[in-house]
Write a structure and sequence with these properties.
Helix 3 crosses helix 4. The protein is built from five helices and ten strands; from the N terminus they run βαβββαβββαββααβ. The protein is 23% helix and 21% strand.
Amino acid sequence: MFSYSGKQYHGWQIQPNAITVEEVLEEAFSTLLGEKIDLIGAGRTDAGVHAKQMVAHFDAVISRDIEDLLYRLNSFLPADIAVQNIYKVADDAHARFDAHSRTYEYWLVQEKNPFLIPFAHYVKYPLDIEKMNQAAELLLTYKDFECFSKSNTDVNTYLCSISHARWVLNKDVLVFTITADRFLRNMVRAIVGTLLDVGLGKIEIEAVKTIIKSKNRSNAGPSVPAKGLYLTQVSYPKRSK
């Protein structure tokens, strides 16, 4: 289990000509364990997206003390990546396919704050949060979210089951929290952009239904900046012993 600030990285997944979180972590593990380590993450985050809790699995025989490995690993890693725990799991455990839900937060601020703006989306105009939450509740009644998916994405299905979607004002930050069994690429940022259109009075709440039913990305709102998006939890079912 680990966390990272995505500001300096081109997402999670290894790319040929860009630095990614996966590349940095695999290099650290491989160096300390003395063998090539391949990580399988619970999902992919895009460039600039952060993770408060990410999970990945790998195959290796670890003979050293886990606490010592954690200490050395975090000493080796850059300041914007931290590993919290390493667990031994069943041979057939899979970080991605075994996960039954993921939770994301999107952070938004409405006052110019130099300590928050690098990690949150700044919207200076008044927002109707009540209407934004009414529109967010509609998401729980649909399954097909093709309208919020990035174009030309290679997926077998656009079906997702959203179990929670709500805006809450937490001191100076307006936080949108959303939980689903899976997410499409760019889905959360497109949903937030659409809900902001509701909050700004650009579209009515009922328009969200029309957008979802259209299955057309061009009908939804703009994608908000990646800097405000955080993967906060990956949940797994309990395994019987």
